[in-house]
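Intended use. Records like the one below are meant for learning the mapping from a protein sequence to its folded structure. Do not use them to infer anything beyond what is encoded.
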Amino acid sequence: MKIRSLIQFSLFGLSTIIFKRRKPILATIILTDKCNLTCKHCSVNNITGKMYAYQSIHQEMSDLYNQGIRILFFCGGETFLWEDNGKTIKNLVQEAKSIGFLIVNVVTNGTFPLDMPEADLILLSLDGTPENHNLIRGNTYDTILNNIDHATSDNICLYMAINQLNKHDIQSVSDVAKNTKNIRAVSFNFHTPYPNTENLMLSPTEKESCCTTIGNLMKQGYPIFNLKTAFKYIINNSFKTPCYQCIVVEDGKQYTCGRCIEIEGLCEKCGYFFAAEYALVFDGNIAVIIDMLKTYLRYI
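Structure written out for the chain above:
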């Protein structure tokens, strides 16, 4: 993270904590719900198949920047499928940077060539051993590893959603992150039980076991882009929800924290580590604040 970005982020955090503000700093723009995969844990893909228009997305970026958003994610569906009149995800990342966003990240399933050096991080889904990943996401593991190997930059962060099918694969995915070129780190989440995926949710005991595994790997020097100080809150969902410093925008509509806020009872079962981490940081948790600064300096 550049020093300028760190200073702006720190000043925002300090003012948020002191004045109990709810102003957001991080936003995710949904580009499309169209996806080339049908993953077992996903309930938001291919509902409409609509590609949102470039002009609308560009306006959303400008509006978000004017609201004070400085960290921007592009998400899908599958982001690399998005296009409009010759514009692609690459153009959106470049334009987000030119607008002035400090951090611009792209979320992808990794099945398309990875030529995105402009992004700060490419968050790429890898969900276990080859067998379990393919069980969850279809026969894509080898394609993804090949695309990582031929990526044009080392800005890739693996992104694993831990569920009942892959809960024993944390070590395997961490080994890939540690030993594969172009991968900077791995980031973990727990499965959030959207409708019809409740069977994949972990119990608090299972979450604790997973966090113990992740923590031990951190001690061994594995490149893990999560905050260990937040684990005890994540295990029992004892952090404040929703996180007002994060928003999601889809087709002009803004959601506080995420689209899941509209599903009754789902906030209390949130599995998104970053939502917990940001909620704890902006609630003034000193240990998590220090942990976040050190981690972001290391991996972004």
